[in-house]
Each structure stands twice: as structure tokens, then as C-alpha cells.
Write a structure and sequence with these properties.
9-stranded mixed beta sheet, two-stranded antiparallel ribbon, alpha/beta, 168 residues, Glucose Oxidase, domain 1, globular
């Protein structure tokens, strides 16, 4: 992905929505994009593991973790599975764990933060389908674009290799 989220926003201000949250970046891949695969879970890593075991080529997993910074919903082993299965990246509305090890993997992750705690008890089952956070709706038919600055969502696929020609 050559275009920045700012370039994409400037080129498509009517169709691009900017997530209003400030995320931290993890993993070697700082820029990624793909079709949205949204799930909802709370302090339970098992739904994330299950989702990332699938072939993820061309997809971004968006995890609504309920904004919990208490318990990580994924660590380095799960991130390694994501990298092995070709996922473009992961956006977590919550926390991860094992950030130093994740930073060595060829995967892109945006999360609110990191913690040492993992979930030991199975919590409520996850839900698939649209999720909302940061004033943005993440639906299965939307496209996610991520760089060092932001997470944006489009209802249609954008040319992520285009660069803006005007300066802002």
C-alpha cells in the first residue's frame, strides 16, 4: 500500500470514514488494506484464533473487543497464525499481549494497547457481522485501509497504490 490514509481520504472524502480512535501499531507491516471481516468478543481470544485459522488473503480482521485493556484478545502465537494464513492485518478495539514478539512478525496490527493478562475463562460467544467503534461501522462488505496514522473504512475498494497529486 503506497497511498496514505490521508491520500485516500483526500481523494474520496464522500465515501471514506475515518475511525476517530488513536491506535498503536504492532508487527512489521505498518500499512495494510483488505476486505473487512468483523467479529465481536470480550476478553476471549478463542474467537480471534478461530477467525485467523481461516485463509485471510486480501482480508483485515476487525475485532470489537469492547475497548477492554484489561485482557489481551491475541498474542504472538495467534499473530503468527495470522501471518501464516496470509491475513493483510488486524484491527483490535481492545488490547493484545506479547507486543515485542509480535513486532518481529510480518503482520500488521492496530490495537488500543498491550497487557500481560490473557483470558482464562471462556466469556460470551463472539458475534460475527457489523461492529461499530470510533464513530465508524465496520461491515463485511467494507474495505479497511491502515497506515501509521489512521484506520479508514470505505464502502468500495480503493486504489491503495495511487498517490495524491495535490499537497495538503
Amino acid at each position: 500500500m503506497l497511498a496514505t490514509t490521508a491520500d485516500l481520504y483526500d481523494a474520496h472524502p464522500e465515501t471514506v470514514r475515518v475511525c476517530e480512535l488513536q491506535f498503536r501499531s504492532f508487527g512489521k507491516r505498518k500499512r495494510f488494506h483488505g476486505q473487512c471481516v468483523p467479529i465481536r468478543t470480550y476478553e476471549n481470544h478463542l474467537p480471534v484464533l478461530e477467525a485467523l485459522r481461516a485463509d485471510g488473503r486480501g482480508c483485515v480482521l476487525v475485532v470489537d473487543g469492547g475497548c477492554s485493556l484489561r485482557t489481551g484478545v491475541m498474542g504472538d502465537r495467534i499473530a503468527g497464525i495470522a501471518a501464516s494464513n496470509g491475513w493483510a492485518g488486524i484491527v483490535v478495539f481492545g488490547a493484545i499481549r506479547d507486543s515485542v514478539a509480535i513486532d518481529q512478525l510480518n503482520v500488521g496490527i492496530k490495537a488500543l494497547g498491550a497487557t500481560a493478562r490473557r483470558g482464562w475463562e471462556k466469556t460470551a460467544e463472539s458475534a460475527q457481522g457489523p461492529v461499530e467503534f470510533g464513530s465508524v461501522r465496520f461491515a463485511p462488505d467494507s474495505w479497511i485501509y491502515v497506515d501509521e496514522d489512521s484506520v479508514i473504512v470505505s464502502t468500495e475498494e480503493l486504489d491503495a497504490n495511487a498517490r495524491a497529486t495535490d499537497e495538503a
